[in-house]
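debug: dumping io for the single-chain case to check the tokenizer round-trip. Nothing else runs in this session.
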Amino acid sequence: MMKNEKHTIFQPERTPLKVTLLILSGSSLMCVASAVDPLRAANRVAGETMFDWKIVTVDGQPAVTTSGLPIAASGPFETGEKTDVLVLVGGFGTRDQVSHGLVSGVRRVARAARACGGVEAGTWLLGRAGLLEGRTATTHWEDMEDFAAAFPGADVRPDRYVIDGPVFTAGGASPTFDLMLHLIRTRLGMAVALDVASVFIYDQAKAATDAQPLVSLGRLDGYDPRLAQAIRMMEAHVDEPLTIAAIARRIGVTARAMEMVFRKSIGETPGAYYLRLRLNAARRLVLDTRVAMADIAARTGFSSAAAFSRAFSKAFGEAPVRLRRRLIAQ
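debug: decoded output
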């Protein structure tokens, strides 16, 4: 459990959680599915209704997604109806949803709920309602700079998802899926979360503080293709790391030139970046699977479990075995 999750919905509970999802037209179909389907699967795995969710829209009419497919609603957004969690899912045009009635309604329902969240551009509506003031938050990487400027009272970070007390935000579809798996794990346990992940053949959930991938790779393509090529090569050889010289040869530069590219673009050496990439992959396996430590070491390119444990402890301040035990005990 993150330190800022104390006394929120992200804690062990077997009582059903009532979740209201307000879907705004212009949302991504994948964002809607990532928010809803893990909860549905959790109910199926648990054999009982642990998440009592429903979909509403502003006027009760189907919300039209960016793909043109409509999302049916059980009714309109009712500001007088109580819920445990209010989740706002938005996309194109959401940042301009500034009608007084909608903003005040969201504020009223969210403040009466145990928690509220924004998915992708749904974070803008949270901000308009004053719910991000003094809190840490994230949004989709394309909107990051504008979002930070629009809500200077929020600490905006490029994380995949952020949980700050009763408020949570996610940057897009995949981070939302990770967030929901995290919710399921903290409430119902790792076994249920793993079973839910297996339903979708989803075997490497991301940590909240992992950088959104399009921030690193999507934008790099436009700035220095050599850097993007090198990073993709590193990602493809996590289990059997290449030497920096070998990577440089494959992308057609000298090792020194590649080091200059990395230092200029991301402020660290290729070796340091490669190690961090492998350790982040290892951390996901430690946190989200039951894979043995020796196997994790092998999968992430370490010569032994001992070498892996030393590197992991230095990077994250805690041995991988201890981190997993602490996680299971929570």
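debug: round-trip ok. Confidence is low (pLDDT under 50) at residues 213-222.
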